[in-house]
Design brief:
The protein is mainly α and 365 residues long. It contains 15 helices and no strands.
């Protein structure tokens, strides 16, 4: 197993290199950029969703340098001094060729030096650390709640396959899966967060303003009070995939010969289910856990964070792309690509814990 882990870790280096190289190349062909954004802010034409950062470093330092002139290749830069544009390029590092910029970026990333945001006057790691509590809270609790409910429900549906319980629960799951999470979030907000009906749950932040003044059990209650509606909205569609996957996996195992043999030996249904079927059926569920956990951090949380005013990684990533804040874009991409690779390795190791018959050591990576 040690050799397998070593090979997997070695494989992470070319994988990360490929991810960063492709992403960097795509950005080179993307229209716009941080220089364009600063020019638009100076000219008063920036209408981006995050235009509130117009007081950031770049525009604040160079706003007084804008003068008449022509010759810039940037869209919207007409009327600005070419020397001012060149100074902007130098500040953002665009005075160097792309290959050199890419090499410098990878060299810094190897030491986890992600630099500072173009427009937020803060380091990338500091920004990510500030947003992590929201994203970890949403991702971790949504995944745990989803698996805690979906796996027992899927097992029950497999045991009761074709019964009225299986039929009506399938209907509920399909309907829940079809409802967009952000639309359900708006409905929850209208009903329970001071909309047209009840004002039961808060609508802003992960904790209350007086959180530091609360005792430990009040802090726990306040924390989950703020998370209730976002978690319900996020978890609505998460049950469907895991539940149906669990059901189908258990159904496939239930029909195999070794299950019939176990029953013929006089074992009870519970012993057969959890002593024989469970280990084999859960392998495919374990395989899907890393993807579900990682995706819960960003893919499904952007709109939920926006609706409930939660400042997490999903919102940070979206704003960074809109603002062309490349240090944050590439920094978060690098960190979570690396995290995803390690979680995938942990998933493989979990396979062997669930079923010792699986031996990755004898297989090629």
């Amino acid at each position: 197993m040690g050799a397998y882990i070593f090979r997997r870790i070695l494989l992470m280096f070319p994988t990360i290199f490929g991810i960063m190289l492709i992403s960097f190349a795509i950005v080179q062909f993307a229209p716009g950029g941080p220089v364009d954004k600063v020019v638009a802010q100076i000219r008063g034409t920036d209408v981006a969703a995050t235009a509130r950062v117009s007081g950031g470093t770049a525009s604040g330092d160079f706003a007084g340098s804008a003068q008449g002139g022509e010759g810039s290749t940037y869209r919207g830069a007409q009327g600005l001094d070419p020397e001012f544009i060149a100074e902007l390029e130098k500040q953002f590092g665009f005075d160097k060729p792309p290959i050199e910029r890419f090499g410098l970026m990878l060299g810094n990333y190897l030491t986890f030096d992600f630099g500072e945001s173009y427009f937020r006057d803060r380091g990338v790691l500091e920004l990510i650390a500030d947003k992590l509590p929201v994203s970890i809270s949403l991702g971790l609790w949504m995944t745990l709640i989803s698996y805690t409910i979906s796996i027992p429900l899927g097992i029950r549906k497999a045991v009761k396959d074709g019964s009225s319980f299986d039929i009506w629960t399938s209907g509920v799951i399909i309907v829940a899966y079809a409802i967009p999470g952000f639309l359900f979030a708006v409905l929850l907000m209208v009903l329970f967060a001071g909309g047209s009906f009840w004002n039961i749950f808060p609508l802003t932040g992960l904790t209350s303003d007086n959180f530091d003044q609360l005792n430990w059990y009040q802090k726990i209650g306040d924390y989950f009070w703020h998370l209730t509606l976002p978690l319900i909205a996020l978890s609505l569609s998460a049950f469907a995939t895991t539940t149906l996957l669990t059901k189908n996996s258990f159904l496939e195992e239930i029909r195999k010969q070794y299950v019939m043999t176990a029953r013929m030996k006089g074992l009870s249904e519970r012993e057969v289910l959890y002593g024989h079927i469970f280990r084999n059926a859960m392998l495919i569920i374990i395989a899907g856990f890393p993807g579900a956990f990682i995706s819960a951090f960003f893919t499904g949380s952007l709109l939920i964070e926006t609706i409930f005013n939660l400042d997490g990684l999903g919102l940070l990533g979206f704003e960074s792309v809109i603002d062309r804040d490349y240090p944050i874009v590439f920094g978060t991409l690098y960190i979570f690509s690396l995290l995803g690779l390690f979680v995938s390795l942990i998933s493989d190791l979990t396979y062997t814990a669930v079923d010792p018959r699986i031996d990755f050591e004898s297989r090629e990576v």
